[in-house]
What we know:
single chain, alpha+beta, Major capsid protein gp5 fold, six-stranded mixed sheet, 7 helices
Amino acid sequence: MAQQFVRDDASVVESVLDLVVNIDPVENYLLSNLGRSVANDEFHFVPRDTLRTPQLSASVEGADPTYSTTDPTRAMNMLQIIQVGFEVTDSEAAVDRYGSPEDRIAYETEKALKDWANRAEFALVRATIITGNNSTARQMDGLKNSLTIQTSQSGISLSETQLNDSLQAVWDEGSNVDLILAPMTLKRRISGFSAGGTKFYNQDDKRLVQPIEIYESDASSKPIKLVAHRFVRQSGDQGNDIIGIEMDHFKVAYLREPKVEALAKTGDSEKRRVVGELTLEVRSNEAGFIRRAAQ
């Protein structure tokens, strides 16, 4: 909390920065970079099928084939309603404030849109599915609860071999990881796996430059985008998790795109909300991994 000062001379003109400072982060990498899809019900289903297991096959000339079929299955996720409400009294809209624009409602709307993006991203990463009822809100399954390739290594520092083992586990299922989401601690560690080959000294500006946005592994046929993400690890988690996915197999499905709505005016204030309904569309639970509690 900022300290409060009282001057003896009340006639002194205060020095106040005419700007509202807000450095809170907006975290929306998945919301912005995953492909978009469309949902049309509160239950969102994804049909899935598999190929027959490869095996040595040879047929006698003229013989009929053997007949076998596999029926598609369906995976389900729930649509989650996310809304951010705000209220501006008519007095608040009328008074002059340091750093606030003339239109206070526009200022609060912009802030609420950022809050909505943060909440949607948080759900895409961390939500646990709840089917809901008249008194319980529906929730989606986020990435951390959707991936079936999971390992737990509490107390063991993440090594390059362990990371490549996880990448190979996804490759074994038929996918290639092209995105890794990690807390900053593990992002820096992964950057150091091949640091000897990626550090460059720029003689012109005397800087040591270490490109760390792309990680290449022989356990994936794709270059892997390495992203530090604030929601992969939160206070209370038992360590630093790390998530890897092939992005083509995950979409953000919207039943309702986020929009700003004016609510009924009651009393001496204006009420607004940002509301949208979405879910994580998981086309393959094996198209990624989560390694839990890595250091």
